[in-house]
Design a protein that fits this description.
Order of helices and strands: EEHHEHEHHEHHEEHHHHHHHHHHHHHHH
Strand order of the largest sheet: 3-2-1-4-5
Mean pLDDT: 95
Number of strands: 7
Distance between the termini: 47 Å
Bound molecules: flavin-adenine dinucleotide, ligand DLZ, iron/sulfur cluster
């Protein structure tokens, strides 16, 4: 390619796989070149689950093909290319030498770390760099900042209602559809034993994906997780089929069983759409639009559709706003001063606690857990055990197919382990074994007894829960949402408190806390 000069070098990062991404707006096929780079650094900044690596790399390759089919010149640097220098900035430098572009155009990235890299590109290459807003979200970063400015407590529900109005989703004039903003009271039921969750559509790996699978097994064999069950959509066409599958088979009872868990049924009625959404294969607008259309046509009830839309128009947008408003300091927050290294079983699944074993095992098999599994099983345990926020945060970033820092970090630090001290959630999501027992069938086959509060066979979540409340009494007892358990605790004699704390400590001392290199579950 030496000798050719390019108008604009349009950079597409691995999670910017949307035909309408701003970096491609006003593309001049005759003059411009699209640059896509597979680089070692992005594949190893955490030990990403092997399925996540295959998903990103295969989706990138398919996206490049779809651009070429539209007549766009794509300079695609494969991971195994001999000249590949292994990081985004190094590859930009090489690409600028190849193409000598007038300017570089890129859409703002999803991570602070990559934003900092991009800020160095103009100096590095002596070429103007135009960074464009990522318009694939309902709210721009500045829209969230404007909403947050001057508010003391941020609550997702308030932001969500503004988004509903602003984007006219599930609205009837100025009022929310059906008269209520939130139908959670009708949601979150226990899954009946007779309920038969539908088999979910998975996508058999095609030749491109199989080639990437071999590459990942060869280069990243020591990363977490298994490839055998890989079934994620890697093209927009397949992602649209996945959306249709969910609207047809999952949406109508999505709300009812949103919080339910069942051993051997990791997907239940969830959409499984986050990997495709976060890569840009689907847009949040079309997903919310499809759900609203299902309600308007009578195919799904309002409680289900509102519950689903709230996850995307509400939570997804809200956590992105939290991330960009509070970074870079947010990454370091540790309000509860938790310091325990991540227990080894998060990587191996080797624990007698059946809930954790099941969720971690499914994570290894599918690179997926639904929200309550993440929040109330692995997250709850990390919170109660006082795992260092940065350790558990890096774990979530590594093990899920949908994990990118802008969405993963606030969910982990803010929601799961309360490291931001309540910026995101009004109380820590701490729960004893009774919650897990109520929402799942995990406790039935467990070595521990969920009904026992103390003693060698007592469920560890029980004494860890009370020890957590005791440990953080000074900080948390004034929280109105924790008034009930603290009232209970106030009735305990001092000896009982001390006994629970000692039992929790003895259990925590038994945890194997070697920091693991990310080995697969056998
Ligand atoms: P569904 O239950 O079908 O929900 C529909 C969609 O709503 C999801 O696809 C997702 O785009 C969105 N959504 C739902 N809940 C949230 C939420 N809390 N925050 C943002 N979006 C939400 N989600 C990610 O996309 N990437 C992550 O790295 C991630 N890390 C998480 C870490 C922790 C500790 C917790 C508690 C949650 C995390 N989540 C993350 C949020 C949520 O668990 C996943 O979005 C969801 O499980 C994805 O599965 P699904 O597509 O079947 O979701
Ligand atoms: C996650 C990821 C991976 C695994 N690999 C690449 C890659 O090789 N090239 C690339 O451009 N992007 C990759 N990504 C996505 C980036 O890490 C992503 O842009 C940031 O996580 C910001 O969201
Ligand atoms: Fe988990 Fe406790 Fe239930 Fe066992 S008894 S599955 S450890 S909640």
């Amino acid at each position: 390619m030496t000798g050719k000069t390019t108008g604009a070098l349009r950079v597409i990062l691995g999670d910017q796989l949307s035909p309408d991404v701003t970096a491609l707006a006003d593309l001049e096929p005759r003059h411009d070149t699209v640059l896509m780079m597979e680089v070692q650094e992005e594949n190893t900044y955490v030990r990403h689950h092997k399925q996540k690596l295959v998903l990103v790399l295969s989706a990138m390759r398919h996206f490049a093909t779809s651009l070429r089919e539209r007549g766009v010149a794509v300079d695609y640097v494969e991971l195994d290319a001999t000249e590949n220098v292994g990081d985004l900035s190094g590859e930009i430098e090489r690409a600028v030498a190849r193409h000598r572009p007038e300017r570089i155009v890129v859409t703002e990235p999803g991570e602070w770390r990559v934003k900092a890299l991009i800020e160095g590109w103009a100096g590095l290459t002596r070429t103007p760099v135009e960074v464009r807003a990522d318009e694939r979200f309902f709210a721009s970063r500045s829209r969230f900042a404007e909403w947050a400015r001057g508010r003391r407590g941020w609550r997702m529900e308030h932001f969500y209602r503004e988004m509903r109005r602003e984007h006219a989703i599930l609205m009837e004039g100025d009022s929310p559809a059906g008269g209520e903003w939130n139908y959670d009271a009708a949601n979150r039921k226990r899954l009946p034993t007779r309920a038969m969750p539908p088999a979910r559509r998975r996508f058999a790996p095609d030749a491109v994906t199989r080639e990437v699978m071999a590459l990942v097994e060869r280069r990243f064999s020591h990363h977490f997780g298994d490839l055998a069950e890989f079934g994620w959509p890697v093209t927009r066409a397949d992602a649209l089929l996945a959306l249709d599958d969910f609207i047809t088979h999952g949406l109508d009872v999505f709300g009812d069983y949103q919080d339910a868990m069942r051993a051997g049924a990791p997907f239940l009625y969830h959409s499984l759409l986050s990997p495709a959404l976060n890569l840009g294969l689907l847009s949040p607008r079309e997903v919310c639009g499809a759900a609203e259309a299902a309600w308007r046509s009578g195919a799904a009830p309002l409680n289900a559709v509102e519950g689903f839309v709230r996850q995307i128009l509400g939570w997804r947008e809200y956590v992105r706003g939290v991330y960009w408003t509070l970074m870079p300091g947010y990454a370091e927050c540790n309000a509860l001063e938790a310091t325990r290294p991540l227990p080894e079983f998060y990587w191996t699944g080797e624990t007698a606690m059946r809930c954790l074993k099941q969720v971690i095992g499914d994570t290894a098999r599918h690179a997926y857990s639904h929200h309550i599994q993440r929040l109330m099983v692995t997250g709850n345990f990390a919170l109660l055990a006082g795992v260092a926020p940065r350790d558990i945060e890096r774990w979530y970033l590594a093990v899920y197919a949908d994990a990118y820092e802008w969405v993963e970090m606030p969910n982990t630090l803010g929601m799961a382990v309360f490291a931001d001290g309540g910026q995101m959630a009004s109380k820590p999501y701490a729960a004893s074994g009774a919650y897990i027992d109520r929402m799942s069938d995990f406790c039935k086959g467990c070595a521990y007894d969920v009904k026992h509060k103390t003693g060698p066979d007592a469920c560890p979540f029980n004494y860890l829960y009370w020890a957590f409340l005791i440990r953080h009494k000074d900080r948390l007892s004034g929280n109105p949402r924790l008034a009930m358990p603290y009232r209970t605790l106030a009735r305990w004699p001092r000896e009982r408190e001390l006994a629970v704390v000692a039992e929790a400590q003895a259990f925590l001392d038994t945890l194997d806390v070697k920091t693991n290199a990310g080995a697969s579950i056998p």
